[in-house]
Amino acid sequence: MKLQRDVVIRTALDLLDEVGIDGLSTRRLAERLGVQSPALYWHFRNKRALLDAMAAAMMEEAGMRRTVEPGADWRAWVADDARRFRRALLSRRDGARLHAGTRPEPAEFAAVESETAALCALGLSPADALRAEIAIGRYVVGWVLEEQADAADVNEREGERMAAADLAAYPMLAAGMAAVRGGDPDAEFDHGLGLLLDGIAAKLAR
Q1: How far apart are the first and last CA of the chain?
Q2: What is the value of pTM for the model shown?
Q3: Residues 58-106: tens digit of each pLDDT
Q4: Within 10 Å of residue 2's Cβ, how many Cβ atoms?
Q5: Cβ proximity of 51 and 43 under 8 Å
Q6: For residue range 11-65, what is the model confidence (pLDDT) as tens digits?
Q7: Confidence of residue 1 (pLDDT cuts 50, 70, 90)
């Protein structure tokens, strides 16, 4: 029976959750599907194409193909979109690594165009609007890369954390670490996101 494209993608995402991106191979996926590796190339010309399709499916599951509603508050909308993006990446093991390096697919162009147009309507040029979207997108990917790396290495790094004595000669660093260490991950993410949104607001004000 010919493989269905969506079956391959769903199976690949489930395998990703089990073995991580370093353990994911076309050979392993073919074995899970009960076929020979060349059968996968009916739908995907190489592994990169498969990974791109997996990333797109992960985004679709999270409802990322949204267009901006007329009259929406730009700051609230962009912040909500960034949080949704983060949740999407966290929904799969190594989700940030899977997504890194991908580009919007044609099915996503309408959502990107909608957000770009909304920012342009506020006064940004198309180039600056896109730069703002890219900056926020890369902030989210980088943040989740660190979150998922920390989660993977938590046991190995438990004994490496900086003690108060290590920071005694660095009072500003110590004060900052005291506030940040052990903080709520969602609140810390929102704090950094707020700094980026403040930058966009300052650009609009100028």
Answers
A1: 61
A2: 0.86
A3: 998 887 777 888 788 999 999 999 999 999 999 999 999 999 988 878 8
A4: 8
A5: no
A6: 999 999 999 999 999 999 999 999 988 888 888 889 999 999 999 999 988 877 7
A7: very low
Burial zone of 38 (CB within 10 Å; 0-12 exposed, 13-18 middle, 19+ buried) = exposed
Cα distances (Å, whole numbers) of residue 78 to 73, 118, 173, 204:
9, 10, 31, 15
How far apart are alpha carbons 21 and 59 in whole angstroms? 17
Buried residues in 167-189 as b, exposed as e (16+ CB within 10 A): beeeeeeeeebeeeeeeeeeeeb
The two structure tokens encoding residue 47: 């592994």
Q: Enumerate residues 6+ apart whose C-beta is below 8 A from 201.
A: 75
In one-letter notation, the amino acid at residue 204 is L
